[in-house]
Amino acid sequence: MAESEIVDVMERVFSATLKIAHAVPDESLEFWPAPDTMTVREHLDHMAYCLEELSAPVAAAVGMAPPEGSSDAPCERLSRSITRVLDIFRAVEAIGWDTPVVMPGDHTMSIRRVALTLIEHDAHHRGQLIVMLRLIGIDPPKRWSD
Questions:
Q1: Rounded to an integer, what distance in angstroms lies between the CA atom of residue 25 and that of residue 125?
Q2: Which of 75, 82, 92, 134 is most exposed, with minimal Cβ within 10 Å?
Q3: What is the pTM of this model?
């Protein structure tokens, strides 16, 4: 996969996730599908937090300042985090996708591996959000159009 394709994939993947996130009505944000799981709100917050934390070493490597804190609603925070992550990874060409970065937990990964990890994490939680939508009686938005 060419490096520019990674950002293209990230854009498509995160766009699909935002469609799902925006399909959740505000009154369902506290839906809790089962014991020992997260609510819808907690899922959205977790997704945004992981995007922010896992992209921070890459942001530092490309010379981007840390983001300012915000108290956005869950979908807005997720959207803001996605926009920032895409900006970060668009800037990677200047330093190279194989550049190593030290991640939280003190292990090293290439920037390419960080991007792929973010895509995998997003897909996992998007699937959970789709199931939650179905459990509250909402047909999830289709990823692919006919």
A1: 17
A2: 134
A3: 0.91
- Region of residue 96 (phi > 0: left; psi between -120 and 50: alpha; otherwise: beta): left
Alpha carbons 58 and 108: distance in angstroms, whole number: 11
- pLDDT of 142 > 90? The answer is no
The distance of Cα 125 from the centroid of its chain, to the nearest Å, equals 9
Q: Is 108 exposed, middle or buried (0-12, 13-18, 19+ CB in 10 A)?
A: exposed
* pLDDT at 70 exceeding the cut of 80: no
Q: What is the pLDDT of residue 145?
A: 58
91 with 84: CB under 8 angstroms?
A: no
Task: Give Cα 45 distance to the centre of its chain.
Answer: 10
Query: Residue 58 half-sphere exposure, CB side, CA atoms within 13 Å?
Result: 29
All residues at 6 or more sequence positions from 139 whose CB lies less than 8 Å from its CB, including other chains:
133
Please state, rounded to an integer, the average pLDDT across all residues of the chain. Answer: 92
Paired tokens of 48: 């945004």
